[in-house]
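U., I forgot to send this yesterday:
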Amino acid sequence: LDLLGPSREAACWLMTGRCIGMARAGLDLVRLGYANEALPTIRSLHEANRLLSVFVLRGEDELVARWIDGQTVSRGTVMHASQRQEEAIRAEMLRAGERPPPSTKSYFDGQYGRWSEFAHHRRKHVVDQVAGEPRMMAIGPHPDWRARAATVDHFGDVLTELISAGGTALAKSLGPGVGVSFQRTFQAVLDLKYKIPLSDLARGRANDA
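Result:
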């Protein structure tokens, strides 16, 4: 495999590495307790994950070729391509007598919109870092554990997304053994999210237990 060559396989390898690097940066931020500052990185990782997922699935050769050629591929273009790929997969599942999962478009659009508010520095999120009476502003780790918990939960979402897309990409290049390994990792992350519902904790709805 020529990693710098004009092949789809090389594009998958490159984007998998890019996503892993961004995920490590996001992990460092949430581990240190950052919240508002971490969400733009989380949004960017999600964008990279979606591009990788288009590379991994069949079709959309023109989009892949444009990226390899160094041209800009917008998020809208990526999401429309992803939707077409999902529709093709659902059609195959229906023909095979299987019930297909729902579309991910509305969910991803909603999440992306929320993350974009932080990336575009909306005032309400900047004000959230300010304590008016003592005239102080959080310019490091967020002092509110609920904000930190919610950020970790969001990071968990994009991390599972990366495990799915990146694991599939590596399995295609390195063989089925990698596929088994990433599926176990994917399930372990999901189990952890269900066991420790950080979004519930962030909203104060979890029991002390």
